[in-house]
Structures are given as structure tokens and as C-alpha cells.
UniProtKB/TrEMBL annotation:
Catalytic activity as recorded in UniProt: L-serine + pyruvate = 3-hydroxypyruvate + L-alanine; glyoxylate + L-alanine = glycine + pyruvate
Organism (species): Sinocyclocheilus anshuiensis
Transmembrane segments: none
EC nos: 2.6.1.44, 2.6.1.51
Cofactor(s) needed for function: pyridoxal 5'-phosphate
Record-stated family: Belongs to the class-V pyridoxal-phosphate-dependent aminotransferase family.
Domain Aminotransferase class V stretches: 48-393
Protein name: Alanine--glyoxylate aminotransferase
InterPro entries listed in its UniProt record: Aminotrans_V_dom (IPR000192), Aminotrans_V_PyrdxlP_BS (IPR020578), PyrdxlP-dep_Trfase (IPR015424), PyrdxlP-dep_Trfase_major (IPR015421), PyrdxlP-dep_Trfase_small (IPR015422), SP_NH2Trfase/AEP_transaminase (IPR024169)
Classification of source organism: Eukaryota, Metazoa, Chordata, Craniata, Vertebrata
Swiss-Prot/TrEMBL keywords: Aminotransferase, Pyridoxal phosphate, Transferase
Keyword Transferase in record: yes
Chain's gene name: LOC107693722
Recorded GO MF terms: alanine-glyoxylate transaminase activity; L-serine-pyruvate transaminase activity
Length: 417
């Protein structure tokens, strides 16, 4: 009977062979052999990640990410997600109900904000003084928004008067500002900007990927409507999760759209349910969240809560000031002249005259196992970037970074950049 069924249905397809024991698939269908690299164990070198991120992850967070997987729709997972929400509310200093973590990098949160808030044909105003404003402008253009820009060279910042003048002229539904512009090492003033935006019936979107936990930011007090960050900077979790929060004003705009957002994955009507933010009694399947990533993010937020936000801000400032003095003692020039506008988590140095910046970075990586980076986007060729944030933020690491720089300046041959 079994042989008869096999004969009739031939479930194995054209490469299957019938035998008295049943069916086996012909090995001739496998034409690509196992790659030799996959037959060797994984190797990942240890590096001191003193660039603009990701940063080294503390053992406690690594251990949390290594816990056994549970289902993304298990009640225990929902409990962990609830913890994450509360941790983000503390880190952002907000009581917004619509607070969650995106399954993806900070860039995912950036796109989530734009996709859900802005509709085609609507006006958007973007402050560009580094790469992140450039990204937001491009994404908005791809969505069909009318994009207006305020532009400064890397390291420049915008006065509230300049912002208000542009808001009055262009009447945008959304204004984007980068709080921690990691491509230039600038922390941008935010006080008063939210009030100005609301005066013109505009929502304020702020990128705090490089600054959250390292520089003061108070979402509710500063009237920020949408705020997002990334897991891999001062929060010290692995890359791949991105906290975001929406004010009631932002939610009203977001949930009263004429058309659905262009992205299903990033549609907040679904994500709000997945995170238990829509008031419905049950959460339904939308996508499989990064379970291990959420474990690690929860632990990193727990460390921030135990440390205290104000203590974290103070600590980053103290280490940064120690580092800045050391750089100046080496004869190096800080890219951001105004001390109050320097990003504590990412320090930028003007490339020393006569040096090839790529040679400096390569020497430091080879001889000290330390990652520094060059500029990004419009700041390429203008500066070096050194990040000391979260777990990496201490004076011992600052001294190590200074010693590596001093050695590179002595050993690298002078050449035209």
C-alpha cells in the first residue's frame, strides 16, 4: 500500500528515487558544497571600541542577551517589554504612553517617525549640520514630502530665531533636529525649540542616538513630540534595538492619517498593539521581535536606572573634560570650539596638519587594538572621532586613548593628507 501511494503521488519530485524502504531524495540536487569558512569556528577579535559607536558592551548586558530564548508572544516576553517601556520613559524623562523599542537600529526609529507622521505632499523642515539631517531630508523626499532645509557646515548650530523664521516661512508639519550630531561632535541646544514648533502647529522630532544618557535631555519638559535613540551608544546594549516615544500631539497626527504609512513593518497602528500601548486587551502577532536584543536592552536600561540619569550626565561630562584637556596637551585642536556645544560622548578633533588621517587610524588599530574613526558624510576629511560612552566612559580608557594618539603622532610618517 505504501509503495502504491508513492508510485501515484511521487512526493519526492523528479529527483526522488523509490525503494522498497520508501523514498529518498537524490543527492544530485545539491550542487553547492558546504563553504569551508562555515566549517571553521566563529572568530571575532577583541577591540577597544572608542569610535562613535557601537561601544563595548558590559558583561552584565552580554549575559542578559545570552539567556535562553522565549517566544516573542509569551506573557513573560510582554512583561519584559513592559519593563523596557518604563525604562525608556525614565531615560527620555517622559510620561508618554506611546513609548516602545523598534526592532532595528536607530535608523529604523528615524524612518518609523517619518513614515508614520508625514504624508505625501506635506511640508517638512530639516536642520542639516551633519549626516543625520541629510538622511532625514532624503527619506522625506523619497516619501514625497515637500522638504525644506536649514543648512550649516558640520559643527554649526541653529539659533531659535533662525528656526522660528524658517517655521513661519515654510509652515511644516514636522521639524527635525539632531541633538547629538555624532558626525561633528556637536550637542545641539533644544530649550525653547519645542515651544516655537507648537506656536506654528508643528511637531518636533529629535534624534538622540549619540547623546541619550550622556547629555541632558528632557522630552516632556522640552516639549519634544517624537524622540528616538539607539541601543549601541551610551546605553551600551548591542546594536539592533531603538527606543522611541510619541507625544499625544504626535499620536493625534499619526492616527488620523488619510492614507496608511508606506511601511507595514513600521506602521504604528500595529506596533502600538504589539507593545500593549493601544488599550486593547490582547496583543496580536505583527512581527517577531529581537528577543535577545530586548533582553540586552532591558538590562542596559536597568543599569542606567541604577546609575541615575543625572549621575550619568555628570560622569560623561567629567570624563570628556579630562579627555579634552589631554588632547589639548598633545597640541591637538578640538573641532567644536565652544565647550558647551561639545558632545560628551563623541569628541571630534581637527585632523593635525601634515598627517594622513587614515594612516593614523590604521596605526592605532594595528598597534593598540583601538578603534577611532574619521568623519562621516559632510565631515569626512575634516576630523577624527573618538567616543567614550557608557561602559567605556572612564578616565583609564581616556588615558589609553591619549597614549595611543601620542604614539601614532610620533610614529606615523608625516605626509600630505
Amino acid at each position: 500500500q505504501f509503495r502504491a501511494l508513492v508510485s501515484i503521488s511521487n512526493p519526492g519530485g523528479p529527483h526522488a528515487q523509490s525503494t522498497k524502504h520508501g523514498v529518498h531524495r537524490g543527492m544530485s540536487s545539491v550542487t553547492i558544497p558546504p563553504p569551508a569558512c562555515m566549517l571553521r569556528p566563529l572568530e571575532a577579535p577583541f577591540r577597544y571600541l572608542f569610535g562613535p559607536g557601537p561601544s563595548n558592551v558590559p558583561p552584565r548586558v552580554l549575559a542578559a542577551g545570552g539567556r535562553p530564548i522565549i517566544g516573542h508572544m509569551h506573557s513573560e516576553m510582554f512583561g519584559i517589554m513592559n519593563d523596557i517601556k518604563k525604562g525608556i520613559q525614565y531615560a527620555f524623562q517622559t510620561s508618554n504612553n506611546m513609548t516602545l523599542a523598534m526592532s532595528g537600529s536607530g535608523h529604523t526609529a528615524m524612518e518609523c517617525a517619518l513614515f508614520n507622521i508625514v504624508e505625501p505632499g506635506e511640508s517638512v523642515l530639516v536642520a542639516i549640520n551633519g549626516i543625520w539631517g541629510e538622511r532625514v531630508a532624503e527619506i522625506s523626499e523619497r516619501m514625497g514630502a515637500k522638504v525644506h532645509t536649514l543648512v550649516k557646515t558640520p559643527g554649526g548650530h541653529f539659533t531659535n530665531a533662525e528656526i522660528e523664521q524658517a517655521l513661519a516661512k515654510h509652515k511644516p508639519v514636522l521639524f527635525f533636529l539632531t541633538h547629538g550630531e555624532s558626525s561633528a561632535g556637536l550637542v545641539h541646544p533644544v530649550d525653547g525649540v519645542g515651544d516655537i514648533c507648537h506656536k506654528y502647529n508643528c511637531l518636533l522630532l529629535v534624534d538622540s542616538v549619540a547623546s541619550l544618557g550622556a547629555a541632558p535631555l528632557l522630552m516632556d519638559q522640552q516639549n519634544i513630540d517624537i524622540l528616538y535613540t539607539g541601543s549601541q551608544k551610551a546605553l551600551n546594549a548591542p546594536p539592533g534595538t531603538a527606543p522611541i516615544s510619541f507625544s499625544e500631539r504626535a499620536c493625534h497626527k499619526m492616527f488620523n492619517r488619510k492614507a496608511k504609512p508606506v511601511s507595514y513593518l513600521l506602521d504604528m497602528t500595529h506596533l502600538s498593539n504589539y507593545w500593549g500601548n493601544d488599550g486593547k486587551p490582547e496583543r496580536t502577532y505583527h512581527h517577531t521581535g529581537p528577543v535577545s536584543g530586548f533582553f540586552a536592552l532591558r538590562e542596559s536600561l536597568a543599569i542606567l536606572a541604577e546609575t541615575g540619569l543625572e549621575n550619568s550626565w555628570k560622569h560623561h561630562t567629567e570624563v570628556a573634560e579630562y579627555f579634552w584637556k589631554g588632547l589639548e596637551d598633545l597640541g591637538l585642536k578640538l573641532f567644536i570650539k565652544d565647550k558647551d556645544l561639545r558632545l560628551p560622548s563623541v569628541t571630534t578633533i581637527a585632523i593635525p596638519e601634515g598627517y594622513n588621517w587614515k594612516e593614523l587610524l590604521a596605526y592605532i588599530m594595528k598597534h593598540h587594538r583601538i578603534e577611532f574613526t574619521g568623519g562621516l558624510g559632510p565631515s569626512v576629511g575634516m576630523l577624527l572621532r573618538i567616543g567614550l560612552m557608557g561602559y567605556n566612559c572612564n578616565k583609564a580608557n581616556a588615558a589609553m586613548a591619549l597614549a595611543a594618539l601620542e604614539d601614532a603622532l610620533k610614529q606615523c610618517r608625516m605626509s600630505k593628507a
